[in-house]
């Protein structure tokens, strides 16, 4: 059976499709805005027990590299992250390694604070190690791979996201350096 559609019916169908598209677009846009707001209000605990709130870091450039102790290139990534900290801490930039290892004993990828401190020390990382064991901030930033480094500008906005770490790069964090330099001018 073939049903003929009148021109008015076709117009109504297209109108409904446009309205649905706009509603989906607005929902996704608002959700991404909520994620940015949620990430801006993120609070972390350092492995030495201090609380670090992103809201308190407004006015500074913040570099956060999200990773875990199981990441194969951590032995090269963490020293490169420390070089960033050494290069920019005197200019007010804050550099953190954020572990997404579980904090629950017995859980897959569990690491205690002492384990994370030893891991950082083994890889010559002196920068502050933060925890995000429930991956709250990791998800709020829209991340889905480790390692991923994010740079947050002085206004608290996500300025750059770099997924992965290539040990083959001449300057391991070349793009991060360019973004940090631009923000610190």
Helix proportion of residues, in percent? 40-55%
CATH topology: Glutaredoxin
List the total number of helices.
5
Strand order of the largest sheet: 2-1-5-4-3-6-7
Overall geometry = globular
Give the total of beta strands. 7
Q: Major β-sheet, in short?
A: 7 strands, mixed
Name of the CATH architecture: 3-Layer(aba) Sandwich
Mean pLDDT level: 84
Low-confidence stretches: 21-38
Query: What structural class should be given to the helix and strand makeup?
Result: alpha/beta
- How many structurally independent domains? 1
Distance between the termini: 69 Å
Report the CATH superfamily.
Answer: Glutaredoxin
Helix-strand topology string: HEEEHEHEHEEH
Q: Can you tell me the CATH class?
A: Alpha Beta
Q: Report the C-alpha radius of gyration, rounded.
A: 21 Å
Estimated share of beta-strand residues: 15-25%
In short:
With 185 residues, this protein is of the alpha/beta class. The chain has helices at residues 7-40, 74-88, 113-122, 136-140, 174-184; strands spanning 43-46, 51-53, 62-67, 94-99, 128-131, 148-152, 158-163.
């Amino acid at each position: 059976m073939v049903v003929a559609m009148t021109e008015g019916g076709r117009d109504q169908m297209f109108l409904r499709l446009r309205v649905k598209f706009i509603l989906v677009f607005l929902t996704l846009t608002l959700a991404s805005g909520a994620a940015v707001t949620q990430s801006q209000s993120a609070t972390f605990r350092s492995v030495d027990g201090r609380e670090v709130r992103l809201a308190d870091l407004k006015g500074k450039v913040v570099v956060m590299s999200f990773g875990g102790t199981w990441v194969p290139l951590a032995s090269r990534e963490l020293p490169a992250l420390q070089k960033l900290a050494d290069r920019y801490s005197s200019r007010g930039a804050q550099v953190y390694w954020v572990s997404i290892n579980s904090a629950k004993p017995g859980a897959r990828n569990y690491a205690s604070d002492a384990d994370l401190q030893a891991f950082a020390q083994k890889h010559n990382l002196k920068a502050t190690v933060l925890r995000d064991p429930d991956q709250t901030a990791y998800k709020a930033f829209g991340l889905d791979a480790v390692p991923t480094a994010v740079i947050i500008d002085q206004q608290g906005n996500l300025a750059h996201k770099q997924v992965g770490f290539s040990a083959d790069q001449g300057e391991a964090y070349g793009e991060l350096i360019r973004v940090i330099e631009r923000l610190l001018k």
